[in-house]
Structure formats: structure tokens, C-alpha cells
Amino acid sequence: MNGQTTVRELLEYWLEIVMRDELRKTSYAAYRGYVRNHIVPDVGEYRLTEIMPETVQTLTKTLKAKSLASKTVRSIMVVLRSALDVAADYGYIQSNPCRKVKLPKIVGVEVKTFGLDEQRRIERVALESDDNRCIGVLIGFYAGLRIGEICALRFSDIDFENSRLTVGKSMKRVLNYADGEMKTSVVEEEPKTAKSKRTIPIPKRLCALIQKRLAESNGEYVISMRSGKRVEPRTFQFVYERLLKAASVPYCKFHTCRHQFVSNAIALGGDIKSISEMCGHSGIGITLSVYAHSMPGQKEKLMEKMNEMFLETAASATVFS
Question: 188: phi > 0 → left, psi -120 to 50 → alpha, else beta; which?
């Protein structure tokens, strides 16, 4: 490679030689998708020496025009920037043009949750269903697990004696690129961040339901087919959608169950640090930025408690007599 190498060739080298062994399969598939669908079509045939800051800035504008979320645009640009960092380190270009580009700000999206009545209807249908996979929705509501974490959950991950659950794997269907063909396969990997790998307490009633499920199961997964075969997220998504329909609840993506867990935990007075750790967030900043809308009355409740504390002292003072 040299300065006349194309961006497409550089990206291919970066993906296969530099990053392939460093990335989880799911991350590799995501990066490959960014390259194939968003970077190469616009700047893939540019020579490295032809890539200027204005070229990259125009690319960001093009990506935004596709109605991609700001977070997605930034993720795509991270891939391009990282590859061009390699080109700069190797001396093919003097500096990385991505370093001088202004990226779109990430705009917070209001988190949608179910109404309490809707949650209750979903729970009743799940509990009365003869489809044992419905317990996965209850795990979402009462443990806050992601859909991939629920699908990868094994009975061996449950401490029935102490009502605790360990998240050690996540399941996902990913694209595989081999011999010029794209195929998909289901993979189980450790969670993306260290905080996502966690052991958390769960409600005793939920633990009892999982234990009942164990007695009826002939497989190792908490949610499985009747044969004991694992259930991948895409299949479980269909189960979830049928459950919503049976409960007469408008469709919301499955991640809403996780949002519901956090919102309910906040409403019940849970502290943000504990909630953040149970969700596997990398830090409380993420929890606060996503779920701050769930806390509008917390300041007032805090002042009411402060007022009660103050009144205890004031009751024995003469100033209020």
C-alpha cells in the first residue's frame, strides 16, 4: 500500500489484517456493514492522498441526508477515522483528515415505556400462556436484561437459593462475509463491556417462575423450543409481538421492557448507581442521560422528605410557636 491506495483497499486491509482478531464477531459484522453500505459507495475509490477534510465533511452530510441517526453517523466515522489513522501511522498520508471534521451532535431520544395497565395486561397473558418462552418478557420487565442476554441465559446462570442471576453471554444473529457471499449465523459472545457482564438480584417470584420452568424443560436455556433447542432473538421477537397482540397493547420494540424496568425502579425509589449496575451500563452518566425524564417528581419528593426532617427539629423550637 501507499498514498495511491484507495480508501476501499485501505478499509479492507484494516478490517481483515488490523482488526479481525481484535473484534467480537458482532462488532466485525457491524463495521463491515458500515464500510460496505455507507463508506465505500461514496468515498471508496478516492486515493488516500485525495481525501481531504472537506471530503469527509461532505460524507457526514450525505449520511445525515439518509436519515441515519447521529449516533450511527458518528459510529461510521469512527471506522473511517480509525482506518485513516493506520494510513497516517504508516506514512501514506501526512495527517488524518477525519480529525478536522465536525460530527453531528447526538440528540437524546425520549424513551418510550408502557403504561402500568399495559404492563399488567402483558404480564397476565405471559403468565397464562402455554408458550414457556413468554417468561423472557417477564425477565425483561423485572431484571432489565437485553433481548440477546435473555436468549443466551442458561439455567446454570441462575442462583435459585439466593435469587440471583448472572449475565455472561449475549446472543445475536450476525452477517458473515466469506468468499464474496453474505450469510447469517447465530453467535453467543461475552457482553460488549465489562460492566455488562454482571450478577444481579432478581425478584423471588421471578426466580420461582424460572425454577418452575427448569422442572418442565429438557434443555439448558431458560427460554427454548419444546425440543430444548435455543431460541434466537429474531424468533423471540415474534413471540413478543404475538404476546403484545394478545394483550391488546400497541407495538413497542422489545427494548421497551428494559426501559420499563428502569423507569419502575426509579419510581420505586431505587438509587441510580444500583440501577445502572443492574442494567450493565458502563456508567451512571448513561443511565441519567437516557432516563432523566423518568425522574420529574424526584426533586419534589426529596424536598418533602427534607421538610419532614426539618419539622422534627422545628417542632421543639420556639420560632414556630
Answer: beta
